[in-house]
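Help wanted!
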Amino acid sequence: MAIESAMEPLVIAGRQFPSRLLLGTGKFPSNERMRETIEASGTGLVTVALKRASLSGKDPYADILEFIDPAKVLVLPNTAGAMNAEEAIRIARLAVAAGLPSWVKLEIHPDPNYLLPDPIETLKAAEVLVKEGFTVLPYINADPVLALRLQDVGCATVMPLGSPIGSNRGIENRAQIAIIIEQARVPVVVDAGIGMPSHAAAAIEMGADAVLVNTAIAVAGDPVRMARAFALAVEAAEMARGSGQPAPVSWKASPTSPLTAFAN
Amino acid sequence: MSYSEIVSKVPVDALLEITRRASPESVKAVLSRGKASGLEDFARLISPAADSSLEWQASLAQGLTTKHFGKVIRLFAPLYLSNECINTCKYCGFSMRNRIPRVTIPVTQVVEETRKLARQGFRSLLLVAGEHPRHVSNGYVEECIRACLDLMPSIALEVGPMETEGYVPLVQAGCEGLIVYQETYNRECYRTLHTAGPKKNYDWRLDTPERAYDAGFRRIGIGALMGLHDWRYEALMLAAHAQYLTRHCWKAQLSVSFPRMRPASGGYEVNSSHVIRDREMVRLVTALRLLLPHASFVLSTRESPDFRDGMMRLGITQMSAGSSTEPGGYSSFDETAWKASESAGGEQFVIADDRSPAEVASMIRKSGYDPVWKDFDQSLVA
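Answered by r_m:
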């Protein structure tokens, strides 16, 4: 359709992606369902926890990567399980040694319950990994200063959370994320907390470059259909963004005598 | 400060009173909020009054578990290293006074058995042993860990409690989890059941999870052996302990177990008033989920296939499968049928679900869940 030409593609670190919907691969009822879901979502990037994969050759009991076609989507290894910079750096290096792309979703969460990212360790690890040539996509709290610091060290995106991971609460850090978007020199991916297609659409409408969704799709009764719903919501929001600014929302009436008429 | 210093402040009598007096309306008020906000709410959810709304409670527990853990069950295998023990625990098959064949298997056999378990699919191992400083020395345990890591990226321990300094080399060797059950949280009952050996010391055992955390373990497991004392008492104290550890050991993934007594050598007879029935177990597990949304819950082969298949959907996140509870037990397992061809009679207790790992994995899949064998990588730590 003609409207597609109005949409700008998502580009991260020089690589173009077909959709602004990115997917996580945890929590699915089976790898087969995950594969179908990835396909239905139209995504070009999926993130995989390295701790679940086998980094030392094929393993039929740790074969999540076998269900993802690297010709169709970029596999973005993530460092989930790392509690500090040292652990994240080590597992990222091993992933590359095992033949995975040198892209890494940097996530460091010392608290295993809410999985909130450690800003100090994340910055430390980002510095090292960027210097080593990794394309680093850090998962962070919606902290605008941290986002700037991470851009300064050369991260390819910043990925602020909309609300705590898995919470499905939508974008609760709206003001902070708006500042991150306003100041960003790299794509901003809202990652975590997106529970409904409308949340994803809201993120794109407010100017985020992409959203990363996992729980809301993986644990849905029908993940394939839900992925499609998210894809449509993201596309709709993107289309709206490419269709010119709507009139700003306002409850104020315009004054009948213009305030500035005297200067004409 | 450690937990043993404040455990007496848990208002367990008042909480038991809430459990006795709770009304169905007070239970429904908790359920309508979707979570247990504290021990008082929890006391209501394990009360007899909660029985009439159990289906609702179960569905909330299922929802919370799916949200936090996904449609996933993690599988692990216990491997018994030794049944040598210097403790006298009246209910345990390994109790020093029981006349059973005693054995500590050599490291080479540990590796052989681990290889067998790995061929069944396991990538997560729980090393279990009785408490015996000479036969089950720290050096031996460390050697076992190092020898098995290539086959098992995740190794946890359930051995006699140690000082923090004793745990440090085991963590450095690559071990990531430490399991220690208080058995019974009732001090008086604990005293009468543990008549000899270092395990007599209630407080020392109670503080073990914190010592393990200080040594750097990433996973801490606690539990109460159901059937030794009033189950509601145990449930309340277990919940209080779990809450404490969640706050104080915030970097550790907490797992909680509620093993029910099984027949064992020594012939300990469970007091009928202490028995927790299936429906009460459902109440307990689902209530715990509403209190502790992020904790892992473990269900072992102590439970029957039917019960395990049902509980798997109501809050359980980890299961063992095809287990032998006898040191050297797997050595005699036929690898196809995964059944013991012989037993020396040195097991800790008799299991109730003897399905093979493949059969359990297939049941998990049929229920719409993904059996996850590997969820940790050694490259994170070494």
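OP: Thanks! One thing I noticed: The radius of gyration of chain A is 20 Å.
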